[in-house]
Amino acid sequence: MPSTVKAAFRPDVVSLRIDSLVPTRDLDPRERHNAKYKQIATSLTVVGLIEPLVVFASGHGTYRVLDGHKRLDVLVHRKSTEVECLLATDDEGYTYNKRVNYLSPVGEHRMILRALEHNTEEVIAEALNVNVCVIRRKRALLNGVCQEAVEVLKDRRATPKAFQALRKMKPVRQIEAAELMVASNMY
Predict the structure, then answer these.
(1) Separation of alpha carbons 16 and 36, rounded Å
(2) Rg (CA), the chain
(3) 130 touches 36 (CB < 8 A)
(4) CA 10: distance to chain centroid?
(5) pLDDT for 107-142, tens place per residue?
(6) How far is CA 47 from CA 24, 85, 104, 108, in A?
(7) What is the bridge-based pairing of β-strands 82-88 and 21-23?
(8) What angle do CA 29, 35, 37 make, to 5 degrees?
(9) Coil, strand, or helix at residue 143?
(10) Which end of the chain is more exposed for a tag (fewer CB within 10 A), N or C?
(11) How far are the Cα atoms of 20, 64, 88, 90, 100 from residue 8, in angstroms, in the given order?
(12) Rounded Cα gap, residues 162 and 5, in angstroms
């Protein structure tokens, strides 16, 4: 018997008033001093919001925050009034808070290219608290790799060294190597 798949989010990003958002957990004040919090704060200042908050409509014009508590905390302290959000179709915070989906290297590459449309490498490096060389490496990650191989690896955690090795191959072999990496789950 085939099962139906329910979309986890509504398709559009919506702008919501911050005062209508209700956090599902309190942020420990000590978290404001850790490196990740500071990186998020700097990124919001320099680049802006990259990843919308995930919220669930709880009725009466309020929304429960399922993911994005640190981003929300930074915005509240900056006295922002609105934020972009994804509306979840299920009131399930476990998925967002316990099962982190890391951005693939191809996703990072595309994010860097998108950020470079509006900012310099130096500004992005400062926002992410990394050296400019890291931004340049991520920008050039896919240089010399054919689009078909990139497509095979786009959602995989392939290492930068894997892409470096692929660049040394002809396109047909790049595709074969990418498919072998996926088949063996070794990147």
Answers:
(1) 25
(2) 19
(3) no
(4) 18
(5) 889 888 988 888 899 988 887 778 899 999 999 999
(6) 26, 17, 20, 14
(7) unpaired
(8) 50
(9) coil
(10) N
(11) 21, 15, 6, 7, 15
(12) 34
Task: Provide the token pair at 7.
Answer: 């979309």
Q: At which residue do the structure tokens 């942020």 appear?
A: 27
Does the structure show a pLDDT above 80 at 101?
Answer: no
| Cβ proximity of 91 and 6 under 8 Å | no
Question: Of 145, 134, 88, whose CA–CA distance to 111 is shortest?
Answer: 134
CB atoms near residue 15 (< 10 Å): 10
Percent of the chain with pLDDT over 90: 49
Let me know: does 83 contact 49? Beta carbons within 8 Å: yes
- In degrees and rounded to multiples of 5, residue 81 shows phi and psi of -110, -25
pTM: predicted TM-score of the whole model, two decimal places: 0.57
- What share of the chain has pLDDT > 70, as a percent? 89
